[in-house]
Amino acid sequence: MDRVVIGEAVELDVRTARLPSRALSFALDALIMVALLFLVLLAIELAGSDVDTALAAAAGLAITVGVFVGYPLLWETLTRGRSPGKYAMGLRVVRTDGGPIVFRHALARALAGFIVDFGLLSFFTGVIGIVVSASTARGQRVGDLLAGTIVVRERLPRTGLPGLPPADPALAAWAQRCELADLPDDLALAARQFLVRAGQLAAPMRAQLGTRLAADVAARVAPPPPPGTPPEAYLLAVLGERRRRETARLGGSPWGSGAPGASGAAGITGNGAAPAPPVAAPPTSPFGQPWSGPGSPAPSPSPFGPPPATPTPAPAPEPTRRDDPDPAPSPGGFAPPG
């Protein structure tokens, strides 16, 4: 991965193409150019067999330059950085700031490729282009350095997060009563990424990170889970319920057709009226402490966090000494005249 700073001073992560993919792309384009050159020369040979030798050599040289320079120039200009070989390999030529190339970029690349990288100076072996591309940080050849371009990959392998396993049915039923409005998106994404990659982590790091994420989520979700709930099972239940609610909000069917509770999930009862919210007793944490949800008088620690500190008792008032002056009378008492 490489970072590209666009014109709006924003950094973008792009995957630059390296030597193997670029070599395959150039090989495909070279085969097309050689076939095109052969067909053009064959057509000229068949059309005028009595042409002078010097004129035929000059025409052959002009056609060779036109094919090897005009082919990449036209393709990269018209398609904004894609030739048939690059299209087959999922590559594209862009500017170093991430923008599309224009005619002058394609012209500089085509001329440098024919003269320096793969043509005359390298004796049509491509050794200069290979050495320069392998030596630069972004895999640029001489034509890229002169034109100010890079080659990036457009078609990347799917690295998205796979689906999470289903949550425990008992915890899923508990999660339906949870308040998830205060759960931020970045924390939910961090929890999802942890669950997906939990099998790749070492056991101590997995337990520590899972406990910390569960504590952060539990501090924003009410009510707390049942006692003894593992952190990963808790995160699975919360994220599954959050996804179900988002699907229902966007108009999807989180339960499927005919599933029980589908109408209740949408907030409508069988007679078309909205159900009344259930009244329940204040929930408690697995450690028997009241949950600090909305409207609670005092906050309580997360069920996955460290135990609460014992409050320090207030110091007792010092006794009044005999030589101290008399205390001030109460506001409603009687004070004798001086």
Question: How would you characterize the overall build of this protein?
Answer:
Pfam families: RDD. Residues 17-148 form the RDD domain. It is found in: Membrane. Residues 246-338 are annotated as: Disordered. The chain crosses the membrane at residues 26-48, 54-74, 110-132. With 338 residues, the protein is mainly α. Among the domains are: 2-153, no CATH class; 169-249, no CATH class. 44% of the residues lie in helices and 5% in strands. The chain contains eleven helices and four strands, in the order E-E-H-H-H-E-H-H-H-E-H-H-H-H-H. The protein has helices at 19-47, 53-78, 84-89, 103-117, 127-135, 142-147, 169-175, 185-196, 203-218, 231-249, 262-265; strands at 2-5, 11-14, 91-95, 149-153. The strands form two sheets. It has a two-stranded antiparallel ribbon with strand order 1-2. A two-stranded antiparallel sheet has the order 3-4. Strand 1 (2-5) and strand 2 (11-14) form a beta hairpin. It is elongated, with a radius of gyration of 37 Å. It starts with a strand and ends in a 73-residue tail after the last helix. Residues 253-300 have low confidence and may be disordered.
